[in-house]
Write a structure and sequence with these properties.
The complex is a heterodimer.
Chain A: E1 11-14, E2 17-20, E3 25-29, H1 33-41, E4 46-50, H2 65-77, E5 81-86, H3 98-107, E6 112-115, H4 118-127, E7 132-135, H5 144-152, E8 157-159, H6 166-175, E9 179-186, H7 198-203, E10 221-226, E11 229-232, E12 244-245, E13 247-249, H8 254-260, E14 264-267, H9 274-293, H10 302-309, E15 316-317, E16 330-331, E17 341-351, E18 356-361, E19 365-366, E20 370-374, E21 381-384, E22 388-390, E23 395-396, E24 398-399, E25 405-409, E26 419-423
Parallel strand pairs in A: 3-4, 3-14, 4-5, 5-6, 6-7, 7-8, 8-9, 9-14, 13-15
Antiparallel strand pairs in A: 1-2, 9-13, 10-11, 12-16, 17-18, 17-26, 18-25, 19-24, 20-21, 20-26, 22-23, 22-25
Helix pairs in contact in A: 1-2, 1-9, 3-4, 5-6, 9-10
Chain B: E1 5-8, H1 13-22, E2 26-29, H2 44-56, E3 60-65, H3 74-87, E4 91-94, H4 97-105, E5 112-114, H5 123-131, E6 134-138, H6 145-154, E7 158-165, E8 168-172, H7 176-183, H8 187-192, E9 199-203, E10 208-215, E11 218-222, E12 226-228, H9 234-239, E13 243-247, H10 253-273, H11 275-292, E14 299-300
Helix pairs in contact in B: 1-2, 1-10, 2-3, 3-4, 5-6, 10-11
The chains are: A alpha/beta, B alpha/beta.
Chain lengths: ~425, ~300
Amino acid sequence: MLQLIQNDKISELVNGKRVITKKPELLAPAGSLEKLKVAVHYGADAVFIGGQEFGLRSNADNFSIEEMREGVEFAKQYGAVIYVTTNIFAHNENMTGLAEYLQAIEGVGVRGIIVADPLIIETCRRVAPKLEIHLSTQQSLSNWKAVKYWKQEGLHRVVLAREVGAQEMRKMKEEVDIEIEAFVHGAMCIAYSGRCVLSNHMTARDSNRGGCCQSCRWDYDLYENVEGEEIALFEDGDAPFAMSPKDLKLIESIPHMIELGIDSLKVEGRMKSIHYIATVISVYRKVIDAYCADPENFKIKKEWLEELDRCANRATASSFFEGEPSYKQQMFGFHAPKMKWDFAGLVLDYDQDTQIVTLQQRNYFKVGDTVEFFGPNIETFTMQVEQLWDERGNEIDLANHPLQIVKFKVKQPLFKFNMMRKENK
Amino acid sequence: MKKPELLVTPKSVEHIEDLISSGADAFIIGEQQFGLRLAGEFSLKQVNEATKVIHAANKKVYVAVNALFHNDRLEALDEYLMELQRIGVDSIVFGDPAVLMAVRELNITIPLHWNPETTATNWFQANYWAERGAKRAVLARELSLDEIIEIKENSQPEIEVQIHGMTCMFQSKRKLLGNYFLFRKEAMEIENRKENKNMFLHDKERKNKYPIYEDLNGTHIFSPNDMCLIDELTELFEAGIDSLKFDGILQSDDYITTVTNLYRQAIDAYFDQGEEAYEALKDDLLEKIEVIQPPLRPLDTGFIFKETVY
């Protein structure tokens, strides 16, 4: 186990009690304006989004310039900022329109871009100097001397390779005065990012321009070629060769990351649902706040861990943070979906006097179901749905239409944008 | 027109002698602690020997220092670079900016070749790294012919392009083969297979076979086909590409020697006798490669004529 070392640079004594004064940024992903709003509302300090060009994840919805403007304005009300991913490795043909695009991003008030290709770095510096430049994990930044290089090149921040561990991060922070962003949660490449072109070969989709088809998650058979003879290195019934990593989860390492002085804690997943973003961000928010307020007496609560698991659909692991991951951090063989809870509804309104919630249905539920509410301003709680009405006040047994507006009684107060989930049996 | 350099990957010092006879102009050597996916493993002592042999023949020797470095290898990197300076090799091939930083700090005067493999995708980057000291840019293998030509037309540094052999399509820091055997509780398999480079992954759906091995740098997976441009060189010649590389990783000494000689013939035909001589010879050269091509390694033209979408 990693030893937690107190870092005096990030804390102060207030009335004899140590408090963390340098709170890291909690950085959330958002694939759409709705997700951006949820992320900010649920506690993200910053959100990264993709535009319609120059970013990876070409399958995500992605933002128009107008949507970026709206996102920036929304975030501003909460004191949050927006970054835009422009992290492709461009081919010659991708150079057109780059300057105008960066100027447009700068124009709507985006704080910075996340970028891998020096073409985009240098163009940004020239045409959109107000934007911060953050080096993308696509550059697989793995050592302090390379961090120093990018510092000398004038970058504001570097996102580390997923292969960098805690000790290495400490050394980087000691050697170089630059903001460091590290992943704390979500799906990961099993290859060094930027150094995988499986997709290009297998499906003619360029992984470094957003076309990744995740071939690393497929199963393969392992053989040996002995003087031209192909010998199977598996027997019937053996799990096939796989290189699928468990998803990253560093919730329990957050105190370590804070003490290391990491500047931004990044949650991955621009393709994920609003339920996922709300759950993950709200739990990490609680952990960061609790640790920073009172590191001495901090203890991670079991219910936080349980809550985080409610949006997980894959097994999780700590990856490289505490050292080289073993085979136990990969997935082999058949994996049943792990998701036990579904996002069932979004709170639109709550009437304090009548204790009636107005809810937008996001998944089937019915009278008698046990449901759980969570979100900002409330403590997570469960209850049973006793009676249900439709929008016009007609009594119904079940809410089975997508986005249907329903009402029912909830004794504990709720707030707009709280969410409801239910156990998936 | 200037003859392009024929750059090859020897497996040993002895092999270098054969390759010089076969017509190679330049060699990439190195060791896995600092360089990625080398055909042969050369200790510093062997680099020293190889350099003498290569320089005696008036040829060039480049040393691969293109690993993705973690903190723990930086000290050794400094010492290694100073040794290379002392030996007097002709270039240091790098991908990680840490090497550039170390070269500056140590006042290393050996020219740099920039080779980050998959991410060298446009001419702006080639010029960017040239401004920071790279004399040459080694292009990604995932580019089309038109893209390569446009890069050459717009680049300050020399341009190196792979024309033959397999290409790496994946590098993970994780020990994926070892992990698979451990998962199956077959730790013995790992012990027995330390130097084994004969394994491949079978992709049943695509009917492809991808070579795979593990070393200090993690797990490497390679293309299912060997790229072969021996009959498609005209446009690369015309574009003035400076260096044509045959990567002989996972091939036998004899194969590398023979194929080197066939490319020598192709280059000489074009530049000594003219395009027609090359055109007349090229199908014959291709046939000679087909004859010695290992059964599990079909030939193709890589991404030269292939379009990728995204």
